[in-house]
Write a structure and sequence with these properties.
With about 220 residues, the chain is α/β, with parallel strands linked by helices. It is about 40% helix and about 10% strand.
Length: about 220
């Protein structure tokens, strides 16, 4: 069976991603990263639950706490207030963690090469998102070239980003068809009990459910 490494944060996109990889015939191993994010505990629980339900071969947690020491993001620096969603925002919100996805993909490449996996699945999207530069197609293409020249001869590892040109609604439609258990996912950037409903991640999640006429199974502060 084909092997794949899936980046699993515990959010709705990454949960859909793991189920999608399995549907494509891959035996999946899941990587989850703890980097001092505000909702680290909740994300860890969600990711572990999803990995168990999907029947992942491995679930490996990796600590990247140095990103907290670097700061530069409201997700890792508690002195900063998490930006709320603004339709007319022109700058990148402060929830962007500097060059985070490059860190994640580097580790995923090491894991994939060690396990003989032929694919790395990552749930980035570049449609209705917050403008993070490391979610763009150009970034994925550039990192693929890095993998090609940085792994040993005979290695073939492809970055698979199936949602990169999709909207959140389109991703949710795919996940709904596959019966992804969204009640076990978490998207909020700042709360671990009731989702705030106003951060960028909450906004796009709620909009996706509303656009499909579905009820979001998680609880929000206003509920």
């Amino acid at each position: 069976m084909m092997k794949a490494v899936c980046l699993l944060s515990g959010g709705m996109d990454s949960a859909t991603l793991v189920y999608y990889a399995r549907e494509q015939g891959y035996q999946v191993s899941c990587l989850h990263f703890n980097y001092g994010q505000r909702t680290e505990r909740k994300e860890r629980i969600s990711a572990h639950t999803i990995a168990t339900l999907v029947g992942a071969e491995e679930f490996l947690e990796v600590d990247l706490n140095y990103l907290t020491r670097f700061g530069g993001s409201s997700l890792t620096d508690r002195s900063l207030t998490v930006d709320t969603f603004q339709e007319d925002r022109t700058e990148i919100p402060n929830t962007y963690v500097p060059f985070r996805n490059a860190n994640l993909l580097s580790i995923a490449t090491s894991f994939a090469e060690a396990r003989g996996a032929g694919a790395i699945f990552i749930g980035v999207q570049s449609q209705d998102y917050s403008g993070y530069p490391d979610c763009r197609p150009q970034f994925i293409e550039a990192f693929q070239r890095l993998i090609d020249v940085g792994t040993r001869d005979g290695t073939s590892i492809r970055i698979t980003a199936p949602f990169i040109s999709m909207t959140k609604s389109e991703i949710l439609a795919i996940g709904t068809r596959m019966n992804v258990p969204y009640e076990h996912t978490w998207s909020c950037y700042q709360n671990e009990d009731r989702a705030c409903g106003v951060c960028g991640s909450c906004h796009f999640r709620r909009a996706a459910f509303e656009s499909l006429g579905l009820c979001d199974p998680i609880t929000y502060e206003e509920d």
